[in-house]
Amino acid sequence: MKLNKKFLMSALCIVLTGSLAACSSPKSTDKGASAVAKTKITYWTGDRHDSEFVKETIDKFNETNKDNIEVELVIKGDDFDQALDMSFQTSEPPDVIRVKENTIQTFYKKGFLAPIDEFLTDKMKDTFPVMEDLNSFDGKRYSLPNYGTTMRLIYNKELFAKAGIEQPPTTLNELVEAAKKITQVGKSNGAYGFAQNFKNPSSALGRSARVIAEVSGYGGYGYDFKTARYDYSGFKPIMEAFKQIKDDGSMLPGVESLDIDPLRAQFAEGKIGMYLSFSAEAGVYQSQFPAKIDWAAAPAPSIDGNFNGASGFLGGQWLAISSETENKEAAWKFLEYMYNESVLQQYQEKGFGISMVPSVSTVAAKPEVKGIEGFLPNKYDGVWPVYPTVPVHGMKSDDAFVKYILSGGNLDTIINDLNTRYNAALDTAIASGEAKAEPIADFDPAELAGKYVK
């Protein structure tokens, strides 16, 4: 069967053109090359903001490694998770997988990842922090940290000035009003106050509602660590504000089918006044979509101007090895190269992320990237505990909230339904041993803020 699959994959690669890297069978020998076959492995990522740097780094690895290893970079879009699921179902998964703080736990539970402890030297163990439930599960490591990301309000300074707005909004009411003012002065030129990438609800709300909830003192995924229950009631004013912006006509038309890259392209052209996203945007507007405007980043607004929590500083992992790879040692040699401190130092200095590796962060220079200042960790940033993920039946919270923003409905009923279904799923997962959830009676989200700042 494997020979048939490889034959079919080779045939498919002949007709597909324009891909980032040429397709090939797992092991082959280039014409005229050494008789020793190359060990070919694939690395899948959903990241695009750092793709040029990663591709250049991989090209250098391919040219210089002494083990005859060749890495193929495959960049997926917002369908990364679904594509990965399908690859394991069809027995054609990648060898190396990009994992994130909101995916590694799921990938681990699905059995997609291989532990890497057998390869770690004592020096590496000392260099890279262990983060339980972020890169380590049940006493085994599955990834190592590279960088963390902060979340901010990204805004067009030129549109703000044109609309007479002196400071970025700090409350939801100010956010709604700023979006309205920007639209009033910009609509004639195709510019609108606010935008979200609603084509992918989890991506849209994961970079917007999440951070507003967190700085306001609520778990960004609807989970209350103090009670160990799901409670989405804190999201009510956030969803009402987003819906108000949409109803006011202050949101970029077509957001229901907008992906994050088209949103970024529109912002770079000056068609969006503001949106919420990660610190990766600094690199995006330097290389991927060079900005034609003057822009900056500011702390995300809270619900009412009070900061009772912390803006999640996200990270703790980067690359992982597939449990199904037939080339585990080759995959590790690639990881070892990517985790070299010189590579990680360049990653920060080029503005792709803020290092979470102490030995790197102490020597890496401040990135010389426009707008990065607004993304550097501040007194509102902090690392939240890991919440339990559960396979809920029915519509997921992000889908339900985006449907409300776009089409309306009874928000109280929606929130009550989400609380009921998510807590039922949590109880089932706890009973089966698939999840752990215990109340943290003295949990105070405000105490998380500023802990990362050195």
Short description:
With 454 residues, this protein is an alpha+beta fold. The chain has helices at 2-15, 51-64, 80-89, 104-109, 122-127, 157-162, 172-186, 201-206, 209-215, 236-247, 260-268, 281-288, 328-338, 341-349, 358-361, 397-407, 411-432, and strands at residues 27-28, 38-45, 69-75, 96-98, 113-114, 136-137, 140-141, 147-149, 151-156, 192-194, 223-224, 229-230, 272-278, 295-299, 311-312, 314-315, 319-322, 354-355, 381-382. Helix 10 (236-247) packs parallel to helix 16.
- Number of E-state strands: 19
The oligomeric state is: single chain
Q: Classify the beta-strand content into a percent band.
A: 5-15%
Low-confidence stretches: 1-34
Number of helical stretches of at least 4 residues: 17
Helix percentage range: 25-40%
Distance between the termini: 55 Å
Largest sheet: 6 strands, mixed
Shape: globular
SS content category:
alpha+beta
Average predicted local confidence, pLDDT: 90
- Rg is 23 Å
Describe the structure.
- By secondary structure, the protein is α+β, with helices and mostly antiparallel strands.
- It has 17 helices and 19 strands.
- Strand 6 and strand 7 form a beta hairpin.
- Helix 10 packs parallel to helix 16.
